[in-house]
Amino acid sequence: MNLLIRKKKKESTDDGNKKKSVLVTGGTGFLGAHLVDILSKSNKYTVRVLSRHSSTKKIKNVSFVEGDIVSNSDSLQKALDGCEGVFHLAGLVSRDLTDSRDMMQLHVEGTINLFKQAHQAGVKRIVVVSTSGTIAVSKETKLANEESDCPMAIIGQWPYYLSKLYQEKEALRLGREFGIDVVIINPSLLLGPGDHRLSSIGDVHSFMNKEFAIVPSGGVSFVDVRDAAQATYTAFEKGIDQERYLITAVNWTFKEFFGRLERASKVMSPQITVPDVVALWGSKIMKKASAYLGREAIDPISVEMSQYYWYADASKATQVLEFKPREAIETLNDTVSFLRNNF
């Protein structure tokens, strides 16, 4: 009798330790690659990565499925089959207005398609990675939190942030409709190693190439990509359904940000400050001149965006997700080192 009891307990324990299957969209991107690394090393999950391009990577507990969330429903169904959860990171980061339609299609239509397919597959929980820019952007030096009003009058002029806002709204709505737990992560500017596409650390690259002629008037908020990946992982396990979490490490004026970058990179920061209207007007002239001369210059949209304050409060993530960002100077040093070694 005792032997039978012990055997039953052992079988129960084994079932409890069975790995859960999860899907990561955007798993080959900057944040996605770090998240996949965390998931694979946790030894708690069997991970599938949906990628538009075939992959020959060999990562423990990770398999790759070729396809996308917009056009290829067969590959998406295959990727979702048997999954209990999804980390939805697939996205397009662009300040180019000509990419507006592509961003709306991917972020909004793609998310709707993903949720419909996930519902059919019996997925129970989805973590959606958005951006702090759907909440935390202002002309004033104030910290935004998850309860702050949406700055629609500001982000309405920038398709990336507008499409991410609509993505959030659709995800929350469909989560309620389908009975799927939805947790939204809103990271600020991602810095750190691994951004081979320069999708997020491009401004640091521009700084090191001395493409900034002036110090912008606004302020920046950023977080280490490795810490954002850890917060995304924790959100799947501890995040509250229908809640969002701002993820950031520091809030600095661009003057302070450039000063810290100067010390980290040994590249001299610009010293000139001018009124916003002059900066915007000048950037438009420089953009035309640089195109004629075959040189790089900061585009006017980036200049306009840098005249705002992107300050965010991560207190909620600290309390619920146990978010603990590393020292900002470590992030800057690692970003500079990565750029020097790869570009």
Q: Could you explain the architecture of this structure?
A:
This protein is α/β, with parallel strands linked by helices and 343 residues long. The protein has a single domain, classed as Rossmann fold. The protein has 13 helices and ten strands. Helix 4 (100-121) packs parallel to helix 6 (159-178).
How is this fold's topology laid out?
Blueprint lengths: L1 H15 L3 E6 L4 H13 L2 E7 L10 E5 L6 H8 L4 E4 L11 H22 L3 E5 L22 H4 L3 H20 L2 E7 L1 E3 L10 H7 L10 E6 H14 L4 E5 L2 E4 H12 L10 H18 L6 H6 L9 H6 L7 H15 L1
Parallel strand pairs: 1-2, 1-4, 2-3, 4-5, 5-6, 6-9, 7-8
Antiparallel strand pairs: 8-10
Helix pairs in contact: 2-8, 3-4, 4-6, 9-13
Unreliable segments of 5+ consecutive residues: 1-15, 277-295
The general outline is: globular
Write the CATH homologous superfamily: NAD(P)-binding Rossmann-like Domain
Residue-averaged pLDDT, rounded? Answer: 88
The tally of beta strands, per DSSP, is 10
Share of residues in strands = 15-25%
How many helices?
13
Look up the CATH topology. Rossmann fold
Q: What can be said about the biggest beta sheet? A: 7 strands, parallel
CATH architecture: 3-Layer(aba) Sandwich
The class by helix and strand makeup works out as alpha/beta
Strands in their spatial order, largest beta sheet: 3-2-1-4-5-6-9
Please give the CATH class.
Alpha Beta
Helix content: 40-55%
Q: Give the ordered list of helices and strands.
A: HEHEEHEHEHHEEHEHEEHHHHH
* Tally of distinct domains: 1
Instruction: State the end-to-end CA separation.
Output: 68 Å
Estimated radius of gyration:
22 Å
